[in-house]
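Hi R.,

Here's the chain you asked about this morning:
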Amino acid sequence: MKIPYVVSSNTRNAYATAPLLHASLGESGRKLVPEDFEWDDGFTPAPLTFYAALALSRIFHRINPLHRILQKDIDILMDLYPATIPLKFSVRYIKDEQYWKRSFYSKFPERKEIGVTFWKGKYLSACLQDYLENVKPDIFIEEDAVVLASLVSPYIYELSLNQLQMIRQPKPALPSQEVEDTCEFSVTKIYDHIPLEPVLMKLYNLQEISLVFGINNLAEGYLTRYFEFSLADCESLCRGLEYLTNLKIFRINRSNLDCSKVKLILQNLVKKDCIEELDFNHCKIGDYGMKALGGFIFIHKNVKRVRIANNRFKEVGVQGIAYALQMNPAAPIELLDFSLNPMSLECATIFAAAFVRCKVKPQTLIVNSCGFSGASAEKMAGILSLNRGLTRLDMAANNLSGEAETTLISALEQNKKVLRVDLRRTHISDETQRKVDELLERNKSLVGQETEASDEIPPLFLNEPEYLIWEYNPNNPDYIPGRYPPRVPEI
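And here is the predicted structure, written out as tokens:
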């Protein structure tokens, strides 16, 4: 290890001497060149030292010399140790990060990782992921999985499973004298995967878990059942989650996660105060599941980010989330992502009613590609006229042309808190985009300063938005936020 691996190659290139300067008078006479790390290229260590280190590297499973030799010799050994040393011998004794980085790219050459600071944990997490993703449920040996999880658990902080194999479908019973249905399609379907409980209960340091209940690269072997999973899988997962006392991020993506399953999962996660993010993107959550999620937001005390893009809920599901938000939930909710969920005018009306009541949270609302147009787009744009909690509103890939542009500009003129509005592919004019950019720059310049109440909203009603809720009643869908009649204060 000639070069400290913590010094990046970009830093070395930045401080390298230019080729033209090597021939200059000041450089040609230098005997010490500390920035030249390749000065001994073409030279080998002393033959005896090199071959002794090479021999030791081949018998590490029998002789561990790391605690008996000098650091310079350890550095040589780290470059010579093969990446194929069994984990039961290497995990406890090898701490060199460059060895684990070399092992990672040796075993997983197709994976490219950026910004990794702990290669040992990354490599061990990838090994556990590779084992769990490819093991067959029919020949799954629980003891082997527990041994591997126990070995790597002190070093793993995140676990991502991009696929899970499914148990084989049982064959129909053999026909007998009795008349019975032996059709292959009449056999009770089984959607079980490997039990995750014995693995998760050992990963006590885990902070982030991502799951996909499906199989990759099926090609012509595609079957819809490969992307199903059972309540037994959910129960096993929930029992394992009970042991994860440090879990912060929980994801299930691209899976057949429906209302009954998400309710079962949320019932177990609500007991864990450490949860900060829920991600159920690209699943099949309907209205019933969204009501359960709304109850989770209302009860939980720590969840900050909720992502539910591309699911199957409609007006009733939106109303469940809206009710939780407008009742001042205990959770310090910061971000809601509703992208890729088709929403009607009634959904926009419910959103408007909820965000008028929300004074502080959430700070970010993402509704990209939700099908807003016409009156519904005007309602969503008008939210900013009365809400003072949002600092970011993403409405990309919706149709905001026409009256919605006027409402958006009027709302931004009154709102001095919002700092970012995503309007890509919204069919607005260049003039509207320029005006929006100017208003956002104004708001950014006002960060940290006390702003006066908007002249458009009477001060008497600034802190009492509940007075305006009747205008956002779903039974009155023609009302547009930001366009309200004059009000006479009570005497």
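One quick note: The longest helix spans residues 119-134.

Cheers,
M.
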